[in-house]
Design a protein that fits this description.
The structure is a single chain. By secondary structure, the chain is α+β, with helices and mostly antiparallel strands. It is built from 14 helices and 31 strands. The chain has five domains: 190 residues, 3-Layer(aba) Sandwich (Rossmann fold); 85 residues, Elongation Factor Tu (Ef-tu), domain 3 (Beta Barrel), CATH 2.40.30; 72 residues, Elongation Factor G (Translational Gtpase), domain 3 (Alpha-Beta Plaits), CATH 3.30.70.870; 106 residues, Alpha-Beta Plaits (2-Layer Sandwich), CATH 3.30.70.240; 112 residues, 2-Layer Sandwich (Alpha-Beta Plaits), CATH 3.30.70.2570. Keywords: Cell membrane, Elongation factor, GTP-binding, Hydrolase, Membrane, Nucleotide-binding, Protein biosynthesis. This is Elongation factor 4.
Amino acid sequence: MPATPTNVPEPSRTDPALIRNFCIIAHIDHGKSTLADRMLQLTGVVEQRQMRAQYLDRMDIERERGITIKSQAVRLPWAPTGGEDGTPGATHVLNMIDTPGHVDFTYEVSRSLAACEACVLLVDAAQGIEAQTLANLYLAMEHDLTIIPVLNKIDLPAAQPEKFAAELAHLIGCEPSDVLKVSAKTGEGVGELLDKVVEVTPPPVGDKDAPARAMIFDSVYDAYRGVVTYVKVVDGHLGKRERIRMMSTGAAHELLEIGVSSPEMKPADGLGVGEVGYLITGVKDVRQSKVGDTVTLLNKGAEEPLGGYKDPKPMVFSGLYPLDGSDYPELRDALDKLQLNDAALVYEPETSAALGFGFRVGFLGLLHLDVIRERLEREFGLDLIATAPNVIYRVIMEDGTEHTVTNPSEFPTGKIAEVFEPVVRATLLAPSEFIGAIMELCQSRRGTLLGMDYLSEDRVELRYTLPLAEIVFDFFDALKSKTRGYASLDYEPTGEQSADLVKVDILLHGDKVDAFSAITHKEKAYAYGVRLVGKLRELIPRQNFEVPIQAAIGSRVIARETVRAIRKDVLAKCYGGDISRKRKLLEKQKEGKKRMKMVGNVEVPQEAFIAVLSSDSAAGEVKGKK
């Protein structure tokens, strides 16, 4: 094994020819974070006594669920084996990014790829190529990166390295012998992989004499130091105590600290061409550091910004409301700070007659929703209600007007000509024995088969067009249970289609409760209405008068349940006597109930909202181990 220096060269003097920027991409549970651990140990940037499993996964949620949510950049020194005698060559600086594997965090992966020149495509030697492997490979090809194919977990008894090396080689267009075989758990082959990274990754290209330009690829908020911005320098040089300017906002700041992540923050004199590091300006305003923005010097700065990232398009919308209305300002500040750390988060204020003030938040998927809600509750101490997730619809009226609907309460009334819903192109990979079960599931979700290919004699790839609304709830759970956990799913938006959709309203005592409204397919509206009124009947406490709970499409009621009234026994004081006396008392009670019904209103308890609206009951969430 080559001798590896533990001291990182002074960043401001690193020759760009000795820099290698690469990331690790793979499906969930194929061992990216474990491989990153071995690289940290092998290069000596983390001492053995400080080492822990999944070292780069910093958040509690990541550690509990065993999944990576945030990309993490780290700087590693590595001296590759020089000649045949095994002597170490020149010490190179490797900037490695560990990326998430779940489809909901693809935006994190695409931003990481934009900061790299090569990527390590990792495949589990026991499971083979899966849906997200393909999706990440195509992303890397779009960015024109050098792809290094690697098989991991070769130490497992179930591993089939030769079979999956041939599959991977066929996919990328290389020889099976070019596929590296490593074990991230034991460390076998990791040194050879780092040598390969140095050998095939092109050094970063940039003009060191041009005005400084650096791309912001991530930010995080620190309560003590303000906004910490992570950048990749493309041209020129950024130095400590220089004044910088954000090109999109024009805001000017002084650089209080500049440095590299190795993997803890390590201050430096500056950053040159191709280097990845962090900037601290002491700014507390989170809106002044935008992912995709270009940083330049205030004096003699660049004129042209670098090409930014494509803005992510939210796939799923959900309302987030504080349980206590006075927490609304805290929720707004918390979302501002989270958006800094998660550029895929989109939100706008909204109000609900039932839930008060809150925000309509756009997410890339259901796991993204679940993680954001949990982070808001843990990191900022908020108690929240999340309304049932829904997607964006486009409604065209008969008079030609068009409405964009992100919330069922916005669904227009009147004569509707057409309703369009978003559709996705789903790629499903599974053993061939489960083809029938998968086809049955997709057809029940209004899917259309686009094609089917056998990757090998026992693995098949199915391509479907599916309405997004049909897969944001429990589709993934159903897919996993029907295929004993072997199937994998990836999807990408492909536009929209016309569909027969209706809005189902829930009426309590004749009044609509906007928070319970839902947009659903006409064929499934009845089942939805029956399920919801049945659930509400159990949750709403009995009143002094009878309360009808109805589900309606427009003015047509499709389901009804009744909460029986609480009745006082007015005949208790009548021992025998004339029946007319009893009848008189009952009639008097009836009149009172009628009067009460006219003036009474039904208070829906908070627990009922939480139980019915909580996305937990509907959300098909992936808790993949990685």
